[in-house]
Each structure stands twice: as structure tokens, then as C-alpha cells.
Amino acid sequence: MKMRILAIADVESKYLWDYFEKTKLDGIDLIISCGDLAPQYLSFLATYAKVPVLYVHGNHDGCYEDTPPEGCECIEDRIYVYRGVRILGLGGSMKYNYGTHQYSDAEMRHRIGKLRLKLMRSKGFDILVSHSPALGINDGDDLPHRGFIGLTELLIDYSPTLFLHGHVHLNYSRQIKRESEYMGTRVINAYDRYVFDVEIPDERPKRGLIFRNPEMRDEKKAKKEKKKQVAREAEEKMQELMGRGRKSDDQQ
Predict the structure, then answer these.
(1) In terms of DSSP bridges, do strands 2-9 and 192-199 run parallel, antiparallel, or are they unpaired?
(2) What mean pLDDT do residues 206-217 have?
(3) Which residues are CB-neighbours of 209 under 8 A, at least 6 positions away?
(4) Residue 99, Cβ neighbours under 10 Å: how many?
(5) Single pTM value for the model
(6) How many CB atoms lie within 10 A of CB 40?
């Protein structure tokens, strides 16, 4: 299935709000917010959109508790199916000051663990939507913008077609990419606004009994080794961040 998606995150686009025209939403099949946007902005788009407006929370979306976006669909910690496309939502950022919608690696893994039965029943997912990037995939060098290892593991385990995130603004550095690829998954940073086409395969990967399929055994072994590598890199990155923190304390 081919879809045209409008992905948004982090800043309210003047193109879509201050200078809005209905025709700017023509041809859009789905609108997905990756967080840190005013609820009024999402409600505004939902008023004119003829398609669902989906969202996850960013680390600055505490106001959603009292003022949730009207006419929009929160997909946090669930698999939302639209036109047969399975969309998994996991918002929030790394815990850096104990604010709303912030999580440790362990807490994010716990959230993912609670979804395993649903993921098994749905035979995986096609699109992963988060606010934070995944560890080692266009994430930052500081704790607030460090990616989650749990999201990286999801990409390794399920190889979805698409991964959407925000949080790391494109104007932070020229090295930050709008689009990249990770083990066959197309990765898009939704900062501001981005319209793109994506082809979701009609035939999903077969998931049979591993012991009856040698190729699946080899694939599982390769994925296990890849996750071990990611875990080592995560530990090294955390040690580096802690070292910076201790050095900063000593200088003070």
C-alpha cells in the first residue's frame, strides 16, 4: 500500500498554521505528530484534515494532560491500525530532569515488554512512531537527546518499514539528517514538517516456528549478536556521559 504522510514535530510550522490553506493538505493520507507541539496546533489541523491525526507525547507535552488535542488520536503504548497498516506509538525522551514523559532505558524497555503479546498477535508492526530517536541512530551526544536502546532493539527485532521521530532538531547541526536507513528501516526526523510517500508491503514477513526454518534460526542469531553490540555501545555511551558529568562537577 502506498501512503502519503505528513509528519510533524517540535515546532509549529508557520506554513501549516500562520499561512494555512486547505489545499496544503490535499493528497495527504495520514498526519502523524512526533511530539512537542501545541495541542491547539494539532486540533487546528484535525479540523481541516479529512484523515486521522495521530500523536505521541514529547517531553514538553505535559499540558496535554489538561488540554489534549481535540479530534486527534493518541497512539501511546498501542498498535493503531489504519487501512491495514500497523502503527506503534512510544513517545517521550530520556529521563534527564524527571519531567513529564521522560523515561530511563529500563522504563522504556518495560513499556515495550508490556506490548510483546500485542506485537505477537499483530505479527509485528509497519511504522514506529516516537518522540526520541533510537540509540545510535541520529541521536545526540548529551543525555536529554540520547536515544533509547529499546527502540533500537525494536528495529532490529521487527524491521518495520518506517521509523518516525523528532526531538533532535535539524537546526542543531548540519550533521543531523532528515532521512537515513537502519537495517532496512527508513528513518525520518519529523522536525517542523515533512511530507513523503511510503510503500507498505502488502505481504508481511512470514513468522513461522524457528526450529523448522534454518534461515530464521540464522536470522535470529544475527539479530541477537546485533543487540549485544548495541548494548555494549549503549554502556560505553552512558559511561562517557557520566564521565562528562563528573568532570563538570569537578570544575565547579
Answers:
(1) antiparallel
(2) 51
(3) none
(4) 13
(5) 0.88
(6) 14
